[in-house]
Amino acid sequence: MSDTPFAGLTIGVLALQGAFREHRQALERLGVQVREVRLPKHLEGLDGLILPGGESTTMAKLMVAYGFDRALPDAYAQGLPMWGTCAGAILVAHEIAGNPEQPTLDLLPITVARNDYGRQVASFEIDLDVEGLDAPFRAVFIRAPRIVSTAPDVHVLARHAGDPVAVRHGHAFATVFHPELSNDDALHAWFLRELVAHRPTLEASA
Ligand code: GLN
After folding, report:
1. Which of 58, 111, 112, 190 has a Cα-to-Cα distance from 158 of 20 to 30 A?
2. Is 101 a catalytic residue?
3. Atom number in ligand 1 closest to CA 178
4. Closest by alpha carbon to 85, among 124, 43, 53?
5. What is the pTM of this model?
6. ∠88-89-91 over CA atoms, to 5°?
7. CA 86 to ligand 1 center in whole angstroms
8. pLDDT by 10s per residue, the chain, length 206
9. Which of 23, 50, 59, 86 to mutate to test the pocket of ligand 1 (most atoms within 8 A of CB)?
10. Which domains does the chain have, with CATH numbers?
């Protein structure tokens, strides 16, 4: 086993659809065990879970088909830290603006509008100042959702053009960009540091 600060952690990546392989690679570079989560039973014993970018409508349908619509809120209630990125941020949100019928997991009290960054330029990159990171993070936005409202106790970690783009509430995190496509593992390392800090016993067993 490697002696990186994160050795001993097992992090799941929801692997129903989307950019889960790139998250897996980023996490492996940081020295954690990674598990692709395809069934609710794969949540057992995880220290954290990433919900990747992709297509949220497809993922939402697969989540219902496999029982994640119940298993993920249950795991969250039991303390499993979760990080939704891009489409994953839509999945963890409280509600989708303009389409409250599309089901969400309602883990993080934010409202998101799908595909809401620029109709002509659907994708772009910016250098973002993120609370907790030493250097600006190159953030890749791909048909990203916009966070249009947050509950008062949602902590905003980064903004772009005034809008929150990285947020946290309890042990739920959301970034509307794709942190796994930046050749920079700083945000993944930040997520691991946060979940270790919130479960101090992990440090002793790592
Ligand atoms: N537009 C996608 C959705 O609404 C999200 C895009 C992404 O994850 N890159 O599901």
Report:
1. 58
2. no
3. 9
4. 53
5. 0.94
6. 60
7. 6
8. 456 789 899 999 999 999 999 999 999 999 999 999 999 999 999 999 999 999 999 999 999 999 999 999 999 999 999 999 999 999 999 999 998 788 999 999 999 999 998 665 689 999 999 999 999 999 999 999 999 999 999 999 999 999 999 999 999 999 999 999 999 999 999 999 999 987 755 444 44
9. 86
10. 10-205 (3.40.50.880)
